[in-house]
Design a protein that fits this description.
Length: 192
């Protein structure tokens, strides 16, 4: 159940005054005075519907699989060897008995050509892969951001080059169904 909004909505003369003072809405009302204007709050995010009979997986095995997929990604990006820093964690999923996994691999002291090439490869590999929506913003930290619908929820990949000699690869899984006890243990730090 989505949280009820705590926004205060203006109504009556107060709302009319607020619209009249807003440059955008005042123009809309001036040009289309015969139209009633109603501004609704944003919709809550869609929840991933996990069937009640969905079999649970072992969180340790799931973590091993996700780590292996992440290692395959960094190898495909041309980042050889082991990262200088590797961190991964489970966090609570949006549905009972589910988790999401996030892994972050940091490669330091790289040749700037290797770092730049990894970014280009990320954009190319993910754009060619099934279902990924890829964004490479032209401003700010050089990065490739990608996401796609997973079986339950959404998968995300980020490849960042915060300095010319560093690459950060971050992967976030879609929901992983592990069961309520395993989810509580994993978030509490007792599982894999």
């Amino acid at each position: 159940m989505p949280e009820p909004t705590r926004l205060e909505f203006a109504q009556g003369p107060r709302a009319t005054r607020a619209v009249a003072l807003d440059p955008f809405w005042a123009t809309v009302m001036r040009r289309h005075g015969d139209v009633d204007l109603v501004v609704l709050p944003p919709e809550p995010p869609r929840r991933a519907d996990v069937p009640a009979d969905e079999p649970a997986v072992d969180p340790v095995a799931a973590r091993d699989d996700l780590r292996a997929r992440m290692a395959a990604l960094w190898a495909a990006l041309g980042l050889e060897g082991e990262p200088a820093h590797l961190d991964d964690t489970w966090f609570a999923g949006s549905e009972p008995g589910t988790l999401r996994w996030q892994g972050t691999a940091t490669f330091d002291d790289l040749d700037p050509v290797v770092a730049s090439a990894a970014l280009g490869r990320a954009q190319q590999l993910l754009a060619e892969a099934d279902g990924w929506h890829v964004l490479a913003p032209p401003d700010g930290i050089p990065r490739v951001l990608a996401g796609r619908p997973g079986r339950f929820g959404r998968e995300d990949v980020q490849v960042l080059v915060p300095t010319t000699a560093r690459v950060v690869v971050r992967v976030r899984s879609a929901l992983v169904v592990v069961g309520e006890d395993a989810a509580a243990a994993a978030v509490g730090g007792d599982a894999g």
